[in-house]
Protein 1
Amino acid sequence: MSKAIQSEKATKKKQQRIRCPICGWQPDGKPYWACEKCLTTFDTFKTHAHCPTCDNSWHYTQCIACHKQSPHDKWYEN
Ligand SMILES: [Zn+2]
Ligand SMILES: [Zn+2]
């Protein structure tokens, strides 16, 4: 078990996985999220929960699969 973790760390040190902390859904790079201020649709993980058009930002990110909101930082696996 510990051997597997070690080798994974060595090979993908920089690659951070993104997934829903509740159901495990992984975003596929599509613009699922919409800004309620300017109605721009975007991929919130490309901009780290910031609207690319206006200054809006979010602490919580809603999952497209289970519709639950989780803190944006929790989506990043470390
Ligand atoms: Zn989910
Ligand atoms: Zn906006």
Protein 2
Amino acid sequence: MPGKDEYIAAIDIGTTKIVTLIGKMKKNNVLEIKGYGISECHGIKKGIVRDINEATKSILNSVEAAEKNTKMFIDSAYIGVTGKHISIINNWAEISIHSPSKIIKKTDLDRLLANANKLTLAPQNEVLHTLIKQFVVDDEKGILDPVGLATEKLAVELLVVYGSSTLIRNTVNSIRGAKVEIEDIILEALASGEAVLTPEEKDSGVVLLDIGGGTTDVAVYKNKKMIFTYCLPVGGDLITNDISVGLNIPFSKAEEIKKKFANVDYNFYESLNRVNMDDIKIDRNKATLNIRLYSIVNSRVKELLVLVKEKIESYGFMYSVPCGVVLTGGVSQMKGIINMANTVFSLPARLGVPSDAEGPSEVVASPIHATGVGLIKYAFQLKDFSAEQPEERKNGGLLARFRELVNKILKN
Ligand SMILES: Nc1ncnc2c1ncn2[C@@H]1O[C@H](COP(=O)(O)OP(=O)(O)OP(=O)(O)O)[C@@H](O)[C@H]1O
Ligand SMILES: [Mg+2]
């Protein structure tokens, strides 16, 4: 585990790009990104390795670019994972407090968490995170640190995030093929949430949407904790594909048009006179072209947002997220998408870029790098560094201690 003022590396394996970042947590709790390397991603789509040699080559390119950029050697890194194989399960455990004083001690907590960790998953699955949602002390809910309280009965509610062992192993093997050891594996939605959400949003309730090239990672936060996550295997590549097919142009040209001109709001097109008609060898009628582009991106983006909304609704979270929706990832830069999210969800919506991070502006101010920056932030959170903490807490907060119980894959 890293100490403060110590550099660590993180690798964000996205569908469109692989980013390796090097950063450290400064003493004032601001993250410093020293540098990064970026490569095109081949062999991995939507979080799933399809060609191990291609994947390893892409990872190596990204790692070497980061080493060149920072003049530092990377021998180990924190890795982000996502994909539709990721699932969650809620778990619950409780114990009685036997001591005469009924005061909860650290050893009671260890006993409770050991009980909670007895959950058995099907052998094809691997636990990624066991996150504490809340403690319940007698029947009082929402307790975040119960040590020192008096009670007869102590309970914990957990969110267990797990994924397919073989798919995670393929990612691990592609990284190891690039001669990088893995420090830990972190869910990408959790990393992005760490990078872009404010403490108040996480406390009051918020939905995070990281819309990338191949996946939309969703996370719901309430009472300072992630309480739900979900990966929809749909992202910006599908919008590009629709434009490519709809306008009968190559994917690369469609991608360019999407980034430069696409807007989900029709009003924008009325004033648009910048599309280079010579480049698009199809319809010469600008008005028709604009209507087509509008209807393609409007319907696809709306469909994506509605799918996420329906999922959130089906779990009953719509009334527990007063801070609304925070959009990040490359597609959050699509013109008009924030207003559309506001309308679709009937909740406030904003763009999420990394906060409390210093370094190259193209990284620390960009929603495309929310996951990468968040991986470094989350890695530092896995250890409780605060010098003000009592001695027994310095060696790892609850999160870190519980984390040690997982990740069998990394040990063999
Ligand atoms: N200005 C823009 N307008 C619309 N879309 C954009 C814009 N900039 C980037 N994108 C889209 O964002 C997507 C890439 O986002 P991002 O870099 O977050 O994805 P990724 O991390 O590679 O993939 P994933 O996380 O889905 O595996 C691409 O589809 C790209 O076209
Ligand atoms: Mg991504």
